[in-house]
Amino acid sequence: MATAGKVIKCKAAIIWEVGQMPSVEEVEVAPPRSHEIRVKIVATGICRTDDHVLEGIFPNIDYPVIVGHEGAGIVESIGPGVTSVKPGDKVIPLCIPQCGECGCCLSPKANCCLKSHLCEPLQNLMPDKTSRFTCRGKQIHHFLWTSTFSEYTVMPEVSIVRIDNNAPLDKVCLFACGFSTGYGAAVNCAKVEPGSTCAIFGLGGVGLSVVMGCKVAGASRIIGIDTNKDKFTKAKELGATECIAPQDFKKPLNEVLVEMTGLGVDYAFEVIGSTDIAVTALKSCHLGHGTCVLVGAPPGGSQLSIDPTLLLTGKKLIGCLLGGWKLKDALPQLVSDYMKKKFNTDALISHTLPFEKIAEGFELLHAGKRYGFYVLFFRLSPFLPFNQ
After folding, report:
1. Is the dihedral of CA 226, 228, 232, 235 positive or negative?
2. What is the rounded CA–CA span in Å between residue 189 and residue 294?
3. How many other C-beta atoms can be found within 10 angstroms of the C-beta atom of residue 208?
4. What is the rounded average pLDDT of the residues 335-346?
5. 257: which of 113, 123, 284, 384 fits an S-S bond (Cβ 3.0–4.6 Å)?
6. Residue 228's CB: how many other CB atoms inside 10 A?
7. How many CB atoms lie within 10 A of CB 281?
8. Which pLDDT belongs to residue 385?
9. C-beta of residue 80 within 8 angstroms of C-beta of residue 149
10. Cβ within 8 Å of residue 168, ≥6 positions away
11. What is the pLDDT of residues 208-228, one digit of tens each?
12. In whole angstroms, what is the distance from residue 164 CA to residue 177 CA?
């Protein structure tokens, strides 16, 4: 391509400091170096994790920063040594890399690559500890090696995977985080069984993806829980058998669920990121064998306090990172399943916004009045409206 090896000037949304809404600015994006790839982002979702950076509650972040990790795009150019993709390929960035060499990548039991931000907080810069972004002569930091809130971004090869070139990028960008996390929480982490009873606390985009996973796994009762009853129609459309709102009851919600199901639900999913709700979800699990899955990301530094006798009875409390997937291995197949219409993730998209209205997208996320994901669409010349 004509731009290969050159600095590209484009639009990006920068969070200059904690609490400040992203500002759309012109940035300079340097060419990829060894084992790096520069990608033209076509579409990206706004995820709660991005909002945690905005609010200053995501750990080990340096500002100013370009966030975004739920994206999809097209390879613009590659650096020396790159073998897995070529210019023109459609790709999805990986917010949890898969280096293929560390103990977690080599283990079939783990998907938390030791090069991830959770293990080694160096993803504010590229692996060589430099940035590819500049604005107003100032270095701008990366986020999770993805930074999809930029028309062009650079990432290491361990943080990208090629997908079907026929895939609609404005739809499959959700597979980079939200959908994969929720769907995988049910089918991978919980391993929901046919005929089981499930409760999902929180019916946003990820919660609805959990609903879809529980339905595919054959759960007989799927109970959706949210304070916003406007989300119930969509939840039932996607597989929830019933929905309840906490404010409609005078007793604790875990007691309500135990009464509804006998001894509690087989599987409970906390998809909000609240430690208090996590305790409620655990208490709602079936005595002796119920499993509570923590899916939502709580603020950094949060502490979870539980009565250990809840676990001594046989209940289980487990974590869920990106649905338990090794994404470099799993994403091409998930996209293929979508193309074969094995599930309809299009129904999860509630808002489509032009990239220039990214601040409005964050405001919608804060309001929490609608179900599903918010997607931004970049214009190709230079921008296209973005969906979410």
Report:
1. negative
2. 10
3. 32
4. 93
5. 284
6. 15
7. 31
8. 29
9. no
10. none
11. 999 999 999 999 999 999 999
12. 18
